[in-house]
Amino acid sequence: MSTPLVSIIMPAYNSQKYISYSIESVLKQNYTNWELLITDDMSSDGTKEVVKSYALRDSRIKLFSTNKNSGAGVARNCSIENAQGRYIAFLDADDQWLPTKLYEQVNFMLSNNYAFTFTSYQKLEGELIKGTVLAPKSVTYRQLISSNVIGCLTAMYDTEAIGKCYMPLIRKRQDMGLWLEILKKVPKAYSLSAVLAIYRVGSGMSQNKLEILKWQWIFYRDVLRLNFFRACYYFSIYSIKGFIKYQK
């Protein structure tokens, strides 16, 4: 298998508590041709110092900073702008990958000539695994608009096929906005059903359910520019699917 460079995009804001776990999960990958681009979004804790200590030990780890606190989307875009890899992958500073994640996903994309993929993942609460989110076989634009089934920590896209794609400059729902933009360029995102990542529930990057719904409505109206009735339609579907999801 060829080994194209993978650029791993990680935003960080006051992530000192968990970021070492995230970085260590990248260092343990059995696929070694990667670069980890961490953009600190004006943290007030020791996040930058932790990242600097890793960067001094491994030149594949690179630290960038925003000029003001601007949100995860802006931080991710800074890393994407500086990325050199063919593949762009995403990992937040409180999540983790299993050791074969990059190897399996890159091979899956190369073998099938897929430009945009994602995987299944587990949910971690405290120190305990609390369930698995199984990825559907594939998803289209029309399907994704009513339910974001692509976990950000599992997504990967091919810049050779679709160019560099950036997050919309909004505080929330940037990942869903990016996936929809990519799905305007390719007909489907395909999943590798294997569980290859761990999402940390209840950390600083998580939100309560009402807050999620508020931002989803804003996303439909202000980002996608849906009229009131179409926004109501997709919001209703999103809410129902979200309720079902959170019962699992």
From TrEMBL:
Quote the InterPro entries the UniProt record gives. Answer: Glyco_trans_2-like, Nucleotide-diphossugar_trans
The UniProt entry, under CDD domains, shows: Glyco_tranf_GTA_type (cd00761)
Report the enzyme's class at the first EC level: transferase
Record GO terms (molecular function): glycosyltransferase activity
Q: Name all Glycosyltransferase 2-like domain ranges.
A: 7-121
Q: Which UniProt keywords apply?
A: Glycosyltransferase, Transferase
State its Enzyme Commission number(s): 2.4.-.-
- Which Pfam families does the protein's record reference? Glycos_transf_2
- This chain belongs to the protein called Glycosyltransferase family 2 protein
| Organism, as annotated | Pseudoalteromonas haloplanktis (Alteromonas haloplanktis)
